[in-house]
Amino acid sequence: MFSIILRTLKDRKVSIAVYTIAAVAFLWMYVALFPTIQGQAEQLQGLSEALPVELLDSMGVDAESFGFETLESFLALENFSFIWPIMALFMIIGYAGWAIASDIDKGTIEHILAKPVSRTQIFFGRYLAGIAMLIVFTFLSIYAVIPFAELHGVEYAISSYWPIFGLSFLFGWAIFGIAMMASAFFSEKSKVSMSVGGLILLMYVANIVSALVDKLENVQYLSFFYYYDHTAALMDHVVSWEAVAVFSGVAIITTLVGVFWFNKRDIAT
Amino acid sequence: MSAIKVENLKKHFGEVKAVDGISFEVEKGEIFGFLGPNGAGKTTTIRCMMDFLRPTEGTITILGKDAQKEGVALKEELGYLSGYVQLIDKWTGQEHIDFFRSLDGNKNVAHELAERLNYDTQMKSKKLSSGNRQKLGIILALMGEPKVLIFDEPTNALDPLLQNTVYELLDEASKKGTTIFMSSHNLAEVEKVCSLVGIIRDGKMEAIESIASLKKKRLYTVTVHFEQEVKKSVLEEKGIKVIDELKKGFVLNAKGDINPLLAALHELNVADIEITHGSLQDIFLEHYQ
User: Fold this and answer.
1) Interface confidence (ipTM) of the complex
2) Which of residues 191-230 of B touch A (CB under 8 A)?
């Protein structure tokens, strides 16, 4: 299994590098912009107060914490509300589709299945390589804030970044579990992307709708974006137990279903 | 104990009965040809033997191990070649060899095989022709010197010279005691390489024959032209089956041993002759319908 993990990481190194560099570049841009934004904090704050609370809620922004006084509040609003999750989703879903479904589609999986390696080892070889990629991506795309803040003379609260790292990893892990399960179900990468991408989009819409329509408030519990409270993680250094339980639970259950199905299914190209 | 034993194997995909209750045995060191037209169920059977597909019913035992329950241990002793070798485009041949070797750690004769097949292991797979892809597939299957080889149409995309090299490799492996199970839709290839033949059609095993017995069932189509006019009745009197008449010639049909036909034609002053093997489909139509 170790050979599979190493070989997978070697094959995917360019992809990991591209996503990580892009995420780090965005982070650098926000840190570099922050001193200018901070200088106009009062005007921006005034502008934001004119926005309906529901609209901010629907974007995953806590109206009470909204502001541009600190780097963390700015990053919560600009980076972690949209850019970071989008990049993580593209990387995770793309990788998971490649990991199993694409190999079945292309027929390349037959070589490895013909060797004395169990399907469980193949699944977890690819799975653990994906987890390693997720950790590297999450760590660098978050902790790169420290050298950039130092470079631009911006104050930062180092204690804020451990909670957002933990929360972001759990969010990514849950999506990864679902995507790997889909990859074990399907024999085409595009089906994995469509099904998981569609599900995430539905969750995003559910979160917006629940913020805008009182009657549908409870729909928020079906959305990962409700639990992915990046503002609380960055500003209050809090990751709710609810979020930990939901993300870990989904990740573990979908992983087990995925490996069970991969063991059970016919593999034909 | 048979090296390969398949009992009442069935694989159904919904209503489609791809394989429907086939049974056969292959002895150690034997080369078993699995013959059948496209869509007969050859590849499905092989994929069940490799545990890529899970049988609907039946058991497959290879080297005394259940192919489904003990598949991982069994694959330490199996070499497999797909009919259409799919490779990882970004890897070179050497990277394929190194990676798959790392998974089984068996003895590795890849270098010798590459030399013999005249294959450059440093080329990226995406640049390989279909013949070279097949060569790499053969190297990957044979490099661990497995006890059982399962080949799905091994000479696909190979030129006649390389086909002969593959036949030699199979013959050498068989002489060392390796059991070989190979599918083909090419009767001539099976006759050349195998000692026993299983004929599958529509998911059912039609017959299991020795090569000697199969040769008796060979069909020939003979197109012959004579130096002078020859009447059809002359040929028919000699027991020759005429299919079509040509200008100063005929299209004839022959079964089994062709020598009596050639001897009869020799007496009639032949100007030109062309002999083609009847297709597998023709043999099925003649003998198994």
Assistant:
1) 0.77
2) none
